[in-house]
Design brief:
With 141 residues, the chain is of the alpha+beta class. It has 4 helices and 5 strands, in the order H-E-H-E-E-H-E-E-H. The strands form 2 sheets. Strands 2-3-5 form a 3-stranded antiparallel sheet. The protein binds iron/sulfur cluster (2 copies).
Length: 141
């Protein structure tokens, strides 16, 4: 009976508290700086060594030479396979790969999960590696 009273008290108390959940995606919590999201690619720096490919534990990254272009490489990422471990970023000798905070990557069409990073995620130092302040709104804190 005592437990029931405590339970009832908690239930009534919760009626007057702000919800702990947020109205996502309208309201977004700040993204922590250490979030490892989608990989970004600096095509100019890539030398095609494929160290990233060899070190990827999920077989998610592929480097191919761009046809008819001297020393230009394309980086294909499988978002279905990638586990966002950043191993490729740490081991790239030319620092051509970068971790970003982009994490909303779900797709209905499975074919869209394989992307060319130089097209969908070219590295932009001024906008990447940081949470997007415009999209971020503090909630319940
Ligand atoms: S490790 Fe870096 S330089 Fe080498 S192929 Fe991968 S992205 Fe290019
Ligand atoms: S983040 Fe990890 S899983 Fe994804 S491509 Fe790089 S090494 Fe592979």
């Amino acid at each position: 009976m005592k437990k029931l009273g405590a339970l009832l008290f908690e239930a009534i108390k919760s009626l007057f508290k702000k919800p702990v959940t947020s109205d996502y995606p309208k309201k977004r919590r700040p993204i922590h700086d250490s979030v490892a999201g989608m990989i970004a690619f600096e095509q100019d720096k890539c030398i095609g060594c494929s160290i990233c490919v060899r070190n990827c534990p999920a077989n998610a990254i592929k480097i191919t030479k761009v046809p008819d272009k001297e020393k230009v490489f394309s980086c294909e990422l499988s978002l279905a396979n990638c586990i966002f471990c950043s191993q490729c970023v740490f081991t790239c000798p030319k620092k051509a790969l970068h971790t970003t905070d982009k994490f909303e990557l779900a797709q209905i069409d499975k074919s869209k999960l394989t992307v060319k990073l130089e097209e969908v995620a070219p590295y932009k130092p001024e906008t990447q590696q940081k949470p997007d302040e415009n999209k971020t709104e503090k909630v319940n804190s």
